[in-house]
Amino acid sequence: MLNMTELATPEKMLFPFDTLRRLRHETPVRYDSNRNCWDVFRYEDVQRILKDSKTFSSERGAGAGSTILFMDPPKHKQMRDLVSRAFTPKAIQELTPRIQSIAEQLLDAVTEDAMDITSDFATPLPVIVIAELLGAPKEDREQFKRWSDILVESADDLSDEAFRRITDKRMKAMEELYGYFRNIMGQRAAEPQDDLITALMNAEIEGEKLTEKEIVSFCVLLLAAGNETTTNLITNGVRVLTEMPELQERLFQSPDLIPAFIEEVLRYYPPIVAIGRKATDQVQIGDQTIEKGAQVISWVGAANRDESRFVEPDDFRLDRKPNPHMTFGFGIHFCLGAPLARLEGKIAFQALLNRYQNLARASSGSIQPIQSSFVFGVKNYPITMHIR
Ligand code: HEM
Fold first, then answer.
1. Whether residue 275 has its Cβ less than 6 Å from ligand 1
2. Does the model's ipTM exceed the 0.85 cut?
3. What is the dotted CATH code of the domain comprising 5-25+36-387?
């Protein structure tokens, strides 16, 4: 999927929210002939689309792999029930001490009063957590990161050539990942371990186990869905702290506000700004008629700032309660990793604020947006800070 022309410049990608507000007001539901899809910007409409999985299907063509993200009911429910057993909020909660120690180790390795929050902290943290959770050996982490980056990369420009290049790269990364996980499964079959891959291999519903392909696809999905998103949650949160420095002391003095801070970062600077579906029937949204088979893009980045749902939506407020942002989606595909992402976010900000004060964006160097039509984040975010 290409970027929409309204958001094609680096400045807009670094701050798309004014444009998204304008589009929500002027053309809440509109067809974009460049990208050959519909865009939907209002909270109410986005929620309706994500709720109605019958009219708005998640299925993709062949090649997308058999992952739950791209399945419709009833298959989706069976698979989701199965993988949820290995991926329970309780199992996630038990990771707390381990995630804390990974966060501390990463910060111990920072020796100066400056760092790039993205590469030094926000990127390795979720990669290490997922790799450990799955049971992948430590020495494969770098390779893991490369694969997960390729899976979420977008084409550099609009040419067919760029599109072919990225597709080839992705296919190759997928093949390598499939081989990698198949190999680990072989090892676990001989010698089970206390890890997610072993749990997935043992999980059963009515005597039925997951196939090898389903397990491998799920592992690949966790990498693709869990790493860059969590990285961007952390980096976007640090961006908020440097743009509104008064929050730093407030959160340090009252660390029990950190979960509310994480929720507001998710709403205000969401790591995912858009979610795709396909209309299975002709359907009316607002005053537009969407034809059967059309691609429909739901802009949660716009819905999260819809004034009909949120008071003063462009203000960052720790006291926003409730905070019904849709950054983790809505309905049957609601993010399975949300408890993990929230926990990692909480631990990351506890660790940062306990150790440092006066976090500020470094004056040198410009920041680059991630080139993606679904992801909102930056590739680098250099900061300076003082040890407390
Ligand atoms: C689904 C966002 C972290 C695993 C989703 C969806 C969104 C999302 C929007 C729904 C997509 C749709 O409806 O088509 C996020 C954000 C994250 C995050 C913003 C971080 C801040 C994670 C993590 C994991 C994960 C850490 C796992 C390690 C999944 C899975 C699904 C999913 C497996 C598919 C669920 C289904 O189809 O039933 N995520 N995610 N996510 N996410 Fe996340």
1. yes
2. yes
3. 1.10.630.10
